[in-house]
Design brief:
The protein is mostly helical and about 80 residues long. It has 2 helices and no strands. α1 packs across α2.
Amino acid sequence: MSDPLDGVPAEALDRALDESADEAGLPEYYRSCVRPLLRMPTSQWPRCCGGGCEPCSESLRRVASLTLARLGRSVVDR
């Protein structure tokens, strides 16, 4: 599997993540939780457990999807 972030400058990734997190209302201190998802297939992304976690994994998934879209990268669905 190739890295969906190959060739993406760090500054562009940071900007896309910040914009996506702002759009989704994800606080800055949780943004580092999104970074690992950007390189993983969605089948490995955590799902909501219904336990009221903060942040909810669905929020992290949304920000990851928005970030990849902003970068013009596809979400890997394996």
